[in-house]
Amino acid sequence: MNADRPTESAGAKLKQLRESHGLTLRAVEALSRQLADKKQNYDFFISRGWLNNVENGTYTPGPCKLYSLGAIYRTHWTNLFAFYGLHLSDFERDQAMFAPPKTQLALDAPRAEDTIVVPLQSHEALRLDQTNLFSKLVEIWGEVPIRLIQHLDLRNGTYGFVGMGDKRMSPLIRPGSIVQIDQNQRKIINVNWDSEYDRPIYFLELRGAYLCSWCEMSGGYLSAVPHPNSKCEVRRFAYPREADIVGRVVGVTMRIAATG
Predict the structure, then answer these.
(1) Which residues neighbour 123 within 8 Å (Cβ) at sequence distance 6 or greater?
(2) Residue 175: how many CB atoms within 10 A of its CB?
(3) One domain, residues 64 and 187
(4) Helix residue ranges per DSSP H, the chain
(5) Among the three residues 34, 69, 86, which one is the final residue of a domain in this structure?
(6) Do strands 132-134 and 104-106 pair parallel, antiparallel, or not at all (unpaired)?
(7) How remote is the C-alpha of 121 from its chain's centroid?
(8) 3-class SS at 109?
(9) Bridge partners of residue 212, in order along the sequence
(10) Same domain for 249 and 144?
């Protein structure tokens, strides 16, 4: 196999990184064997002959091999991806291309660490006319800094994802927003609110589908009232036969501009 210049350059960087740690090809082989044994997966093993070909630009390592090299060279394996022109920032933007088009409910949120995961993939099961259920917040988001959503209770909260095509509450809640839901607040109160910002917004389940909306209750019917600027129509449901109240929206995280 003929090596192209990017592969040659990446191989040279890997060799330089190995030598900066004073490691021989044989030493890397021995260390990778330990890792492969620990993980009980031979894909993490790196033979000295194979690594020599990688450093010469003949071979391109796969994810398990890069993981091993990252562990042995004490650098994050994603940094090694960058040697081959693969950058996480590109991956996150590419993920956003396939964001779920509809509003989602998310349960069992992940731990609040340095980053959290925003719009990820959208396979066929997600391409429904209405909203659908998610079991984990991580299934919806690609990585963003946790500081952007640090006000949300990631451990204990219930969350909804407002679909990329759902403009019912825009501009208050834009498409692609994450909303935190208080399931203890499920009663619709019909009063006159001082402003649209004080009026409660609720997350509704429509027998397998979901809506995020203002609500009114009258005569056994629940009306989902959109923001007037959205130009969406009021939807009316028999309550509780056709609709149920998941809870009140108490927190929102959303972008106000597209990222580069």
Answers:
(1) none
(2) 20
(3) no
(4) 5-20, 25-39, 48-55, 63-73, 77-83, 88-96
(5) 86
(6) parallel
(7) 8
(8) coil
(9) 203
(10) yes
What residues have CB less than 8 Å from 21, skipping those under 6 apart?
72, 73, 74
**CATH number for the domain that contains residue 101:** 2.10.109.10
Domain that holds residue 48: 5-86
Amino acid at 159: Y
CA atoms within 13 A on the CB side of 107: 7
Res 5: pLDDT = 60
Contact 205, 246 (CB under 8 A): yes
Residues 6+ positions from 160 with CB-CB distance below 8 Å: 103, 104, 105, 106, 178, 179, 181, 203, 210, 212, 246, 249
Is the pTM here over 0.70, yes or no? no
| Residue 233 near residue 226 (C-beta atoms within 8 A) | yes
Query: d(Cα 160, Cα 179) in Å, to the nearest integer?
Result: 5
- Per-residue model confidence (pLDDT) at position 37: 96
pLDDT in tens, the chain (260 residues): 344 466 788 999 999 999 999 999 999 999 999 999 999 999 999 999 999 999 999 999 998 999 999 999 988 877 888 888 887 666 656 766 666 677 766 654 444 334 443 443 333 443 323 333 343 344 444 444 444 455 555 555 678 888 888 899 999 998 888 888 888 899 998 778 888 888 999 999 988 788 899 999 999 999 999 999 999 999 999 999 999 999 999 888 776 665 44
**Integer Cα distance of 91 and 35 in angstroms:** 27
* Edge-to-edge order in the sheet of strand 210-218: 132-134, 104-106, 158-161, 178-182, 244-253, 202-205, 210-218, 221-225, 235-238
